[in-house]
Amino acid sequence: MVCQEEPLVVQITQLYEKISRLESLKPSEDVNTLFTRLVHACMHPNPIDVAKLCEGAQTMRSNLIRLCGEAEGLLEIHYSTILGSFRAPLDHLSIFPYYNNYIKLTRLEFDILTRHSIWVWHRVASWGSGPLPLTSILLATRHLTTTSFHNYDINPLANSMASRLVSSDPDLSNRMSFHTTDIMNVTDELRDYDVVFVAALVGMDTEEKVQIVNHLAKYMAPGAVLMLRSAHGARAFLYPIVDQGDLRGFEVLSVFHPTDEVINSVVIARRTYAPPVCCSQLRLPPHKCSDFQVFHST
């Protein structure tokens, strides 16, 4: 059991308390400073297993993840507003502080996709695309240059802001669409997508993640690819973890845990051709349970 006396937990708890006392999480000097300190504290390799945190630390972590999600959303709104004021917003994406991280992460995700699939991806869905859909934009402009992207977000303002960013680009505005709905309400249409990306903050805890995965397993086409963003080690204080054991209905193909400034882990899985079954119904040889690749950046 890892409790509050663990040095890393003490440091993160202190930052959490300061962040939780802020009047607003909109970008400001105080907000930027505290979250930068938090990210740096979590970025260093640490073998901590957040599943073994004591109850108080678990509660703190859950609350902190929600604060991080709120702050991240406000940061994206802030920069999407600035970008939307330019005549050609896509020419100025580099003003976003984490733009280079997105370049690295989407390149990594594309490389993993191509390593595990020979398909031509005609249609991609992005769940939780937000007001600044950098994942879709970077994949569409740098890697999947003929693919159509369908971005889902429950916030109409986020979709309106995102749509404005691509509207001045004839190619992207033709290949990229935005849907204001909870993808949990999307059923048969999911069968049309070759790849489904799920943002790290879609599903803030294990129960929500399991509901999402079960929904996708029910409606995604067999052979289609699911790409999830997760977290590992101390980085799990910033984002929820995707448990591979919860990916019923999918074959886990690869797991990647970065050790550089890219925070999110990447989990890629393929929708199986057999109906999803409960773990207790599985009767697989022991070696099959770990038949996936785990990669670490260098």
TrEMBL record:
<keyword id="KW-0808">Transferase</keyword>
<dbReference type="GO" id="GO:0030410">
    <property type="term" value="F:nicotianamine synthase activity"/>
</dbReference>
<keyword id="KW-0949">S-adenosyl-L-methionine</keyword>
<dbReference type="Pfam" id="PF03059">
    <property type="entry name" value="NAS"/>
</dbReference>
<dbReference type="GO" id="GO:0030418">
    <property type="term" value="P:nicotianamine biosynthetic process"/>
</dbReference>
<comment type="similarity">
    <text>Belongs to the nicotianamine synthase (NAS)-like family.</text>
</comment>
<dbReference type="InterPro" id="IPR029063">
    <property type="entry name" value="SAM-dependent_MTases_sf"/>
</dbReference>
<comment type="function">
    <text>Synthesizes nicotianamine, a polyamine which serves as a sensor for the physiological iron status within the plant, and/or might be involved in the transport of iron.</text>
</comment>
<dbReference type="InterPro" id="IPR004298">
    <property type="entry name" value="Nicotian_synth"/>
</dbReference>
<protein>
    <recommendedName>
        <fullName>Nicotianamine synthase</fullName>
        <ecNumber>2.5.1.43</ecNumber>
    </recommendedName>
</protein>
